[in-house]
Design brief:
There is one protein chain. By secondary structure, this protein is mainly alpha-helical. It has 4 domains: 4-58 and 77-89, no CATH class; 95-136 and 180-333, Orthogonal Bundle (Clc chloride channel); 354-399 and 425-440 and 466-512 and 540-603, Clc chloride channel, CATH 1.10.3080.10; 621-781, Roll (CBS-domain), CATH 3.10.580. It is 56% helix and 6% strand. The strands form 4 sheets. It has a 4-stranded mixed β-sheet with strand order 3-5-6-9. It has a 3-stranded mixed β-sheet with strand order 4-7-8. It has a 3-stranded mixed β-sheet with strand order 10-11-12. It starts with a helix and ends in an 11-residue tail after the last helix. This is Chloride channel protein. One of its GO terms (cellular component) is synaptic vesicle. It comes from Scleropages formosus. Keywords: Antiport, ATP-binding, CBS domain, Chloride, Endosome, Ion transport, Membrane, Nucleotide-binding, Repeat, Signal, Transmembrane, Transmembrane helix, Transport. It is found in: Endosome membrane; Membrane.
Length: 785
């Protein structure tokens, strides 16, 4: 067989003239019509009249990176066909329809989650007798028996001790309420972690690190699937209701992206092109933040600044539309019951003064330091979880963290309530009708000021009690959040980070307020704080502190400021928010440039090439490429000298994503690059549907295929799957340029040549490992390609 195979190969040039005649006759009699422009395609389709497209070619394996250039080229071909069929309007409107559906479903799910969380959080403390599905606040809305001092108490709402024993006060009632609070928290947490572990393991965590990695081109099958959407929605309600130190904002981005993936599968424009699908997911991420905070503009900026890898202008418009529809849907549901979209609406009556920039900047410093320390501590704990026996018992870990959280949280009224209610109270500006301990000031009985112009007053005993309770709550939140973020339930980080900053800011605001009252003759207060004036607003300090801590953890700047003023409605306080956000980022970057999401991406070994990182080392492509000195030669295919058996053996013995195609092993002149999956599917399809293809059949990547004698086995032409324009660099190209090329073009691999001769290959994994090595990090931490 081998001698006859050699003779078959030698007949190539002799039969070329006969081949031209055959092609000409075939084109005239049976060939398909080819429109101008279709014959020139850098992805292996130049007048390829011998082969039909193979099914499933150009899809990607799980845990692999897409080829952005290839997807862009395929979309260009699709656009050309759409124009030729004159259905461009229908094709353009499909994108807006997808955005509309994403906004409607995301807003609806967010509203349902908000209502369910409010009800189940209050269920730990009591129940509404008039309607079991009412939360505490809803239960007492229609009651006519509430009093000013006890506005949260009404006959329709009863605590568990009242319902079971008939007593609301006393040691027995306290212990019973304490026990049932912990029991409900453990039940919710156990149910959440069990559902995640059994039905959708990808539903745990925040989801934002994985979303960022997916949007950069990585494939994680099932992460945005229907089961993940369903389980994440249900378990998010359970996890937040359990009282764990976590939020629902990050997971809502994951939920919205699941909605985007669900609806993009309905249109072939997105389902068959991974690059276009990621445009939809970028817009879905914006819709997720829009419904999480009631901040549509902040959602678009969050997707642009923090999440998206490729964000063209049309994606900006569609993201804005999706965020708008999602916010409108949430507003229609009105889950907060205040006819407002924002989560923490504030209305301050006092402007801020330039001298207050000093404490605002100090809050920024606190946020940056706390963010850096939190990232290091949380990553150290998560790494310990991954590398020790602790990771084998996720259910036990969730139960332990929930038990500790519930036992410690119940005695303190500021940690017992939900984190969103805590932040809302900390942001609040004290008025004459507030009964909170934070507003227990000593009032002047002769005061005749209007209600919205109350002067600074000395703090009463309730304020001092609230301060030490807040100080304990601050320590508790700082410690418990480190161990909570990353457990196997849906867990967001926005709200816990804001709670830490809001507590610190409120304490500082009260301190500055009392200093201004008791020492108004000091030089720093004399110019802007007269006796009897309303000078300092402690709630503003809480808002600035929340922004500072959230910025210190995530390293967001522009989107953070916009989210905060949309979240609170405090448009005139942009400058303090900007000062705190920028300061927290500067301070945090001094300890380490990566935010919490980038740190978790690195911990999980995802192949994420961050556009924010800088590469300044003087290395060349030859220093990074494979094969290196002492390594086996590069696995290549020849254009006309390889059999099907050789190809199958090469695929079996290696795990590479693709193979360069050269003229011959002697010359090693580069022809193109063929993907492993495309090669496998093409050979499998040919064996099933093309008669005569056997192991000895010669594989041709050339444009012309010779007419072979009948004694030769049927050849196999695979030029249609050959990438004729793979990206190449020379061996003397600086790695700084190579890294920039990989970032901006989204390459999977790059071939290294010298004068057209193939020398080696550089993959995205090689680039990431080289960057880690240059930064004295473990290069083996990059696990995927």
């Amino acid at each position: 067989p081998h001698s006859s195979l050699t003779n078959c190969r030698n007949n190539h040039n002799a039969d070329r003239s006969a081949l031209y005649i055959f092609v000409l006759v075939w084109c005239v009699t049976a060939g398909p019509s080819v429109t101008p422009g279709e014959e020139v395609n850098g992805w292996g389709n130049p007048m390829d009249l011998f082969d039909e497209p193979f099914p499933d070619v150009s899809t990607y394996e799980d845990f692999h990176t897409i080829d952005w250039l290839r997807e862009k080229s395929r979309d260009t071909d699709r656009h050309r066909k759409v124009r030729s069929r004159r259905v461009t309007l229908l094709d353009a409107w499909s994108g807006w329809v997808v955005m509309l559906l994403i906004g409607l479903l995301s807003g609806t799910l967010a509203g349902v989650i908000d209502l369910a969380v409010d009800w189940m959080t209050d269920l730990k403390e009591g129940v509404c007798l008039s309607a079991l599905w009412y939360s505490h606040e809803q239960c007492c809305w229609t009651s006519n028996e509430t009093t000013f001092d006890d506005r949260d108490k009404c006959p329709q709402w009863q605590t568990w001790s009242e319902l079971m024993t008939g007593h609301a006060e006393g040691a027995g009632a306290y212990v019973l309420n304490y026990f049932l609070y912990v029991l409900w928290a453990l039940f919710f947490a156990f149910l959440a972690v069990s559902l995640v572990r059994v039905f959708a393991p990808y539903a745990c965590g925040s989801g934002i690190p994985e979303i960022k990695t997916i949007l950069s081109g990585f494939i994680i099958r099932g992460y945005l699937g229907k089961w993940t959407l369903l389980i994440k929605t249900v378990t998010l309600v359970l996890a937040v209701s359990s009282g764990l130190s976590l939020g629902k904002e990050g997971p809502l981005v994951h939920v919205a992206c699941c909605c985007g993936n669900l609806f993009s599968s309905l249109f072939s424009k997105y389902s068959k092109n991974e690059g276009k699908r990621r445009e939809v997911l970028s817009a879905a991420a914006a819709a997720g933040v829009s419904v999480a905070f009631g901040a549509p503009i902040g959602g678009v900026l969050f997707s642009l600044e923090e999440v998206s890898y490729y964000f063209p202008l049309k994606t900006l418009w569609r993201s804005f539309f999706a965020a708008l529809v999602a916010a409108f849907t949430l507003r229609s549901i009105n889950p907060f019951g205040n006819n407002r979209l924002v989560l923490f609406y504030v209305e301050y009556h006092t402007p801020w003064y330039m001298a207050e920039l000093v404490p605002f900047i100090l809050l920024g410093v606190f946020g940056g330091v706390w963010g850096a320390l939190f990232i290091r501590a949380n990553i150290a704990w998560c790494r310990r979880r991954k590398t020790t026996r602790l990771g084998r018992y996720p259910v036990l870990e969730v139960i332990a963290v929930t038990a500790i959280t519930a036992v410690v949280a119940f005695p303190n009224p500021y940690t017992r309530r939900s984190t969103s209610q805590l932040i809302s109270e900390l942001f609040n500006d004290c008025g004459p009708l507030d009964s909170s301990r934070l507003c227990d000031y000593v009032n002047d009985p002769n005061m005749t000021r209007p209600v919205d112009d109350i002067p600074d007053r000395p703090a009463g005993p309730g304020v001092y009690t609230a301060i030490w309770q807040l100080a304990l709550a601050l320590i508790f939140k700082i410690v418990v959040t480190i161990f909570t973020f990353g457990i196997k339930v849906p867990s967001g980080l926005f709200i816990p980070s804001m709670a830490v900053g809001a507590i610190a800011g409120r304490i500082m605001g009260i301190a500055v307020e009392q200093m201004a009252y008791h020492h108004h003759d000091w030089i720093i207060f004399k110019k802007w704080c007269r006796p009897g004036a309303d000078c300092v607003t402690p709630g503003l300090y809480a808002m600035v502190g929340a922004a500072a801590c959230l910025g210190g953890v995530t390293r967001m700047t522009v989107s953070l400021v916009v989210i905060m003023f949309e979240l609170t409605g405090g448009l005139e306080y942009i400058v303090p928010l900007m000062a705190a956000a920028v300061t927290s980022k500067w301070v945090g970057d001094a300890f380490g440039r990566e935010g919490i999401y980038e740190a978790h991406i690195q911990l999980n070994g995802y192949p994420f090439l961050d556009t924010k990182d800088e590469f300044t080392h003087r290395t060349l492509a030859a220093d990074v490429m494979h094969p290196r000195r002492g390594e086996p030669p590069l696995a290549v295919l020849t254009q006309d000298g390889t059999t099907v058996e050789d190809v199958e053996e090469l695929i079996k013995e290696t795990d590479y994503n693709g193979f360069p195609v050269v003229v011959s092993r002697k010359s090693e002149r580069l022809i193109g690059f063929v993907q492993r999956r495309d090669l496998t599917l093409a050979i499998k399809n040919a064996r099933q549907k093309q008669e005569g293809v056997v192991s000895n059949s010669v594989v041709y990547f050339t444009e012309e295929m010779p007419l072979l004698p009948p004694s030769c086995p049927q050849p196999l032409k695979l030029r249609c799957i050959l990438n004729l324009s793979p990206f190449t660099v020379t061996d003397h190209t600086p790695m700084e340029t190579v890294v920039d090329i990989f970032r901006k073009l989204g390459l999977r691999q790059c071939l290294v040549t010298r004068s057209g001769r193939l020398l080696g290959i550089i993959t995205k994994k090689d680039v990431l490992r080289h960057m880690a090595q240059m930064m004295n990090q473990d290069p083996d931490s990059i696990m995927f390609n």
